[in-house]
Amino acid sequence: METEYIIPKEFKSAVDGKCPRCRIGDMFEGPLFTFKSRKMRTHCPHCNLKFEKEPGYFYVAMYVSYAFVVAELIAACVATYVITGQLESPWVYLTTALAAAFIMSPFNYRYSRVVLLYWMTPSFKYRPDLYAEQKSV
Ligand SMILES: [Zn+2]
């Protein structure tokens, strides 16, 4: 039962764009799908973790983002086929695929970095002591 409690907690703070180390500070200036959502903070406002741990580290996030885009394109094409049921015109598919990629771009940008920092950066492990620090204040 305990894992059921821990996993959604990590997942939830990732969805919320919280700092992977303290889960309190926000990684981004604003919520998803707002103008500020693309502005990423350099450091965690709570524990002062430097998000871009080394110069160019976020280039790795581009590969994560690429995987997201591929998954979205496939989903968009499958959805197009299910809805329209037609296979003749490639334009319908191209349009929906491009629209999907465009609509999802803030999501891809944000969550490629979240996935990178949460699950691909072992040194950014959650530190409960930093979370406790705030609670005692
Ligand atoms: Zn933090």
Descriptive keywords:
single chain; binds zinc ion; 4 helices; mainly alpha; 137 residues
Using only C-alpha atoms, the radius of gyration works out to 18 Å
Structural class of the secondary structure composition? mainly alpha
Low-confidence stretches: none
Nearest-integer average pLDDT: 88
Strand content: under 5%
- Count of strand segments: 0
Number of domains: 1
Roughly how many Å apart are the termini?
A: 30 Å
Helix content: 55-70%
Give the number of helices.
4
What's the story with the biggest beta sheet? none
- What is the H-and-E element order? HHHH
Instruction: Give the overall form.
Output: elongated
Query: What are the distinct ligands in this entry?
Result: zinc ion
Description:
Helix content is 58%, strand content 0%. With 137 residues, it is mostly helical. It has one domain (2-136). α2 runs antiparallel to α3 (90-119). The longest helix is centred in the C-terminal third of the chain and has 30 residues, at 90-119. The protein is elongated and about 60 Å long. The chain starts with a helix and ends with a helix. Residues 19, 21-22, 25, 44, 46-47, 49 line the site of zinc ion.
Short structural summary:
This protein is mainly α and 137 residues long. It has helices at residues 2-15, 59-84, 90-119, 128-136. Zinc ion binds at residues 19, 21-22, 25, 44, 46-47, 49.
